[in-house]
Amino acid sequence: MHNLVGSMPHEALRNLASKYGPLMHLKLGEISNIIVSSPEMAQEIMKTQDLNFCDRPSLLFPRIIAYNGTSIAFGRYRDYWRYVRKICTMELLTIKRVQSFRHIREEEVSELVKAISQSEGSIFNLTEKIFSITYGIAARAAFGKKYSYQEAFISSIEEALHLAGENYIGDLYPSIRVVFEMTSRTKAKLEELHVKTDKILQDVIDDHRNRRRSGKCEEEGEDLVDVLLKFQEKDSEYPLTDDNIKAVIQDMFIGGGETSSSVVDWAMAEMIKKPKVMERAQAEVRRVYGNKGYVDESELHQLIYLKCIVKETLRLHPSVPLLVLRENKEPCQIKGYKIPANSRIMINAWAIGRDPKYWDEALNFKPERFLDNYSIDQRGTNFEFIPFGGGRRMCPGIAFATPNMELPLAQFLYHFDWKLPNGMKNEELDMTELFGITIRRRNDLCLIPIIHHQP
Ligand code: HEM
């Protein structure tokens, strides 16, 4: 316990693993926690014994924020969960659906690039704007348009995610959790935030329902809420309630906003620290888009080096460093070690991505490593590189996330050169992390843009 208090959990657990090995059993309160820190052990959990390890534990955060754990990300592995996950992969996050949101991404990113160009020569808080447009894109894809209360929704979700990163004591003593819950300030705060977000989501659903009744939906195109309402109207073994729809929409929102923004933010910071990488990436984007004068999504597939930058960023800064907690139904063995039933499994993707046993110059930001090994990808089959997890609980949002990361990066590189403020040297840029359910930069990335191609 004393090794964990006050430090970054993923870092403290990596340090413990280097002493005690890639599979640790850590008893905290009443709970057996199994910490996985090598690709071989991760493969056991996410492939060989995936069916036994694909449940999620019942914790305070999903009980309150994720509608009693009925979302896709936090849902127990049951028939209902399989049904909504299927809707998600076959309807909400398909390549075709993602492409239908192209104009939203292009509009939002172009607006940001124009705003940056107006700050030419002065300090621009890039972090703040990256998060704001990525959440903006997620909101428009999910809700169909910008709602006036979007900002309030985003800030409540961000606050709840931050609380989710803290270890809540009641989660460690399930047999007496009600006792802790009676006096818990975390619970009270989460409930307050949930009341706010729930009201906003209900308004969005009601608004869509009215729009559907008036037939406007067909004229204006279908967004994710419309798709879910269509499923609600169908006869199904698992009729969707409004709460079920809200839980799924919230998943799309958190998945679509928080994770991709932190990758774009870290990628820019890493390139600032490594000007040679930035120059090479700029040369690629400027060659591919040439004198077109703007960057759209049509040529993103040609930006091979940029794709390697995104991969290298996901290796060093996986947005969800310990993945999402899993739970095993049955007792079992992994490589001869006994795992009790209902253990909580943390897979330290952050530690695995930085392990010098699997990566040359592991702490060095070197996108070229993926040029030499382009086939190593993040789709859950190379267990030394698992920023999106793997197996039945793998992230279904890769297709949605990819243009959300590549388009802003390509535009930043095409239109601008970047400098650090106050004569700061590149190597002095602070890279401290802030732990929550995702890892962000502790300090915002503030840079001076210099226009190369006027947007
Ligand atoms: C860079 C971007 C992203 C990263 C790094 C990321 C990472 C992850 C990780 C690590 C998990 C847990 C996997 C596991 O337990 O094995 C996950 C689950 C999930 N992600 Fe993502 N994600 C990203 C983008 C997205 C997007 C854009 C969406 C949706 C719009 C999304 C929706 C989800 C959902 C619904 C789950 C729950 C899956 C389940 O439990 O079955 N993610 N993501």
Can you summarize this structure?
It contains 18 helices and 11 strands. By secondary structure, it is an alpha+beta fold. The protein has a 4-stranded mixed sheet, covered by helices on one side. Strands 3-11-8 form a 3-stranded antiparallel sheet. Strands 5-6 form a two-stranded antiparallel sheet.
CATH architecture: Orthogonal Bundle
Structural class of the helices, strands and pairings?
A: alpha+beta
List ligands, each type once: protoporphyrin IX containing FE
Uncertain stretches of 5 or more adjacent residues: none
Biggest beta sheet attributes: 4 strands, mixed
Number of folding domains? Answer: 1
Sum up the overall morphology in one term.
Answer: globular
- CATH homology group: Cytochrome P450
Instruction: Just give the CATH class.
Output: Mainly Alpha
- Using the CA coordinates, give the radius of gyration: 22 Å
**Could you give the count of β-strands?**
11
Q: What's the average pLDDT?
A: 93
User: Which strand-content bin applies to the residues?
Assistant: 5-15%
Helix content: 40-55%
What's the N-to-C terminus distance? 52 Å
- As laid out across the biggest beta sheet, the strand order is 1-2-7-4
Descriptive overview:
The chain is an alpha+beta fold and 455 residues long. It has a single domain, classed as Cytochrome P450 (Cytochrome p450, Orthogonal Bundle), CATH 1.10.630. Helices cover 52% and strands 9% of the residues. The chain contains 18 helices and 11 strands. It has a 4-stranded mixed sheet with strand order 1-2-7-4, covered by helices on one side. A hairpin with a 2-residue loop joins strand 5 and strand 6. Helix 6 packs antiparallel against helix 7, helix 6 runs parallel beside helix 18 and helix 10 packs across helix 13. The termini are far apart. 44% of the residues are buried. The model has no long low-confidence stretch (mean pLDDT 93). Bound molecules: protoporphyrin IX containing FE. Protoporphyrin IX containing FE binds next to helix 13 and helix 18.
